[in-house]
């Protein structure tokens, strides 16, 4: 199960937990307010700053695409799949099947990597949502190389949704589809 909440809500939830007033409900925004005594507030601030990472930069998020593209270049489907969260969803470029398991993701890339894909960003928008999540959306072009050495290109639109989990940025959702022709 995924929970989506802003860093500010996470700070309040952490402070509430430290103050001993938080419930175990998964609805953080509606939870109780933390106590405001000086000792609890100082402790909450100290632990919160240690728990929550700084906001990533757009450049750092752009680097996650470069990491993914480098994994493609290895030709190793398992290595590419390692970049996806265990509960990730992949809507791949050249397949009509949605992939929701590691085995499905590995299967897709095992076949896709046979064409030695290299992706190049054409246009992108990166949104840093909070300290642990970001979205990279845009247009990219794949250059594919056939077994006979001939190349072809596929223009596609993409969305990568990333989450910081266990200290690693992982892809939790990846949609890629061939770019429609026309306007």
Automatic annotation (TrEMBL):
Supply the Pfam families for this chain: CaMKII_AD
SUPFAM superfamilies per record: NTF2-like (SSF54427)
Q: Which InterPro entries match?
A: Ca/CaM-dep_prot_kinase-assoc (IPR013543), NTF2-like_dom_sf (IPR032710), Steroid_delta5-4_isomerase (IPR011944)
Task: Tell me which species this is from.
Answer: Streptomyces humicola
Please report the name of this protein according to its UniProt entry. SgcJ/EcaC family oxidoreductase
The signal peptide annotation in the UniProt record is 1-29
**Gene3D superfamilies per the UniProt record, alphabetical:** 3.10.450.50
Residue ranges of the TM segments:
none
Q: Which residues form the Calcium/calmodulin-dependent protein kinase II association-domain domain?
A: 59-180
UniProt entry keywords in alphabetical sequence: Signal
Q: Which domain of life is it from?
A: Bacteria
Lineage of this protein's species?
Answer: Bacteria, Bacillati, Actinomycetota, Actinomycetes, Kitasatosporales
């Amino acid at each position: 199960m995924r929970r989506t909440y802003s860093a500010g809500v996470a700070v309040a939830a952490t402070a509430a937990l430290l103050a001993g007033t938080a419930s175990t409900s998964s609805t953080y925004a509606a939870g109780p307010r933390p106590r405001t005594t000086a000792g609890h507030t100082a402790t909450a601030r100290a632990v919160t700053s240690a728990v929550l990472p700084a906001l990533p930069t757009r450049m750092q998020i752009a680097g996650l695409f470069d990491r993914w593209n480098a994994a493609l270049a290895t030709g190793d489907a398992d290595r590419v799949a390692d970049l996806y969260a265990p509960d990730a969803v992949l809507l791949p470029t050249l397949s009509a099947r949605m992939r929701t398991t590691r085995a499905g993701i590995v299967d897709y890339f095992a076949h896709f990597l046979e064409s030695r894909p290299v992706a190049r960003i054409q246009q992108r928008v990166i949104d840093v949502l909070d300290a642990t999540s970001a979205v990279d959306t845009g247009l990219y072009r794949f250059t594919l190389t056939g077994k006979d050495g001939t190349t072809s290109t596929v223009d596609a639109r993409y969305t990568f949704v990333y989450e910081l989990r266990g200290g690693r940025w992982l892809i939790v959702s990846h949609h890629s589809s061939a770019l429609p022709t026309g306007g």
